[in-house]
Amino acid sequence: MHTPETLDYPLPRDVARCPFDPPAELAAIRADEGLTRVRIWDGSEPWLVTRHADVRAVLNHPAVSADTDNEAYPHTSAAIQARRSRAKTFHTSDGPAHDEPRRVLTREFTAKRMQSLRDVVQKVTDDAIDGILTGEKPVDLVEKLALPVPTVMICDLLGAPYSEHDRVQELTKIFVAASSTPADTTAAASELLDMMGRLLDEKSVNPTDDLLSRLATEQLVPGLMTREALARMGLVLLTAGHETSANMIALGTATLLSNPEQAALLRESDDPQVAAGAVEELLRYLTIVHSGLRRVAIDDFEVAGTQIRRGDGLVLSIDSANRDAAAFADEDHLDPDSLDITRPARHHVAFGFGIHQCLGQQLARVELQVVFSTLFRRIPTLALAQPLAEVPYKTDMSIYGAHQLLVTW
């Protein structure tokens, strides 16, 4: 049973104070015991893990499961629980159910392969910025840049028609909206699964040079994987492949515009390592997955002197871990609560850690490097067209970002 001091989770952000900072309570927990029980939507009380070293240790521990079918799994909400039940896939599974599908996809998302797409990302980004510069001011950067670039890229990679992007984005919003019901998310998942299934059917007969065609011809036609399993795989790639990058582009732009000296470092350098470092620092500083990675203990183990029992839920606060001074402060970069694009930040956990870490992270890195460096170089006078406090932030979503970001130049 919880005590009166048990915090309800997720904790509310203080957007008025700073829209980029995690809730202040996380820093207090991190500085004290590092772990504490919290109460989530269904009344259960999983452990909240806040320190960088502890988060990595838990995510890499053999006694920890990502399987959402475990009855003790601490789901983010009833709606997300229902959606994952309808469209469960490898990233919410363990063992062979995770390892084999991931092996099939890993070769599609290697760093080398994603780097080979850089020229394509550059063309898509330049086209979007051309449209911005020839349009009226102010402009909504979410609509004109943040959403289109990753959506075009993931549609092109998968071989999904961009013509359906509006509907895909609508359905993805249902997945992450706090107001969605289990019926909403189940219906959205079913519609997207039908879309993926039809595409797989088409590509099994008329394959082209894209990921869904390779899955259809190499897995579906020989009977190695079912149509349903492949459709679920395609759904995850399509939705996650644009939603997260889009939010990072919008929120990262607002962050850089609020830190003009950091934006200047990025704008004035043609060294690709500067852009790469800026992206890693933005990923660390912002951590848009702000409702924690969820896991469940399948055996007893200990972390940071605390005994975790089999059946205990675990919430890994990666936004707190990425602000941990023990991991990110040194004699040259003292304050992890400040943005410093020269900080060595590649060891952040924005993409998770261990065998379940984000499959598409290399694509996201290329997209963000190209977008931020190009945007601030091509529009050097870019500025917010609304007060930072009036930006409509996605506090109502499980993935943080901005619903709209008005900019001018």
Write down the CATH topology: Cytochrome p450
Regions with little confidence, pLDDT below 50 for 5+ residues: none
**Strand content bin:** 5-15%
Q: Which assembly state applies to the chains in this document?
A: single chain
Described by the principal axes of the CA atoms, the overall outline is: globular
- Name given to the CATH architecture: Orthogonal Bundle
Structural class by sheet pairing and helices: alpha+beta
Strand order of the largest sheet: 1-2-3-9-6-4
User: For the residues shown, what is the average pLDDT?
Assistant: 95
The CATH homologous superfamily is named Cytochrome P450
How many angstroms does the end-to-end distance come to?
55 Å
Q: Helix and strand succession?
A: EHEEHEHHHHEHHHHHHHHEEEEHHHEE
